[in-house]
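SsrA-binding protein: structure, please.
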Amino acid sequence: MKIIVQNKKARHDFFIEETYEAGIKLLGSEIKSIRLGKVQINDAFVTIKDGEAFVHNMHIAKYDFSSIFNHEETRPRKLLLHKKEIIKLFSKIKEQGYTIIPLKLYLKEGLCKLEIGLAKGKKDYDKRETLKERDQQMRMKKILKNR
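Here you go.
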């Protein structure tokens, strides 16, 4: 498994309840750009419409060596999930405060996969609390290492 890009800010801004692995329906020039690492998922989000999941605002740069039939950079892309997973996600996002965000994009056995997470937004005091806990853990590691 080769990780192409991760959304590092996602775990800082959201509580991740569940994660799912989804395939993506891509064009040829898109997968070539992804293999070169020219993709961003920081502002991306997932919506469910008519029983299908789509990822929006995922920026895949144009492939330099393709012809005039190049792809649009931020078009909505269809996610390939099982029907039961889509129904479960749709029922969860009906609840207040839940959203679906992409966590990482990677290649697995030659196929492009997107790990998505069911997330609930953090408040500012939650973010400060997690930073405080992380700082305490780092201090404990230093103290134990020096002994």
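Notes: The domain at 2-122 is CATH 2.40.280.10 (Small Protein B; Chain: A;).
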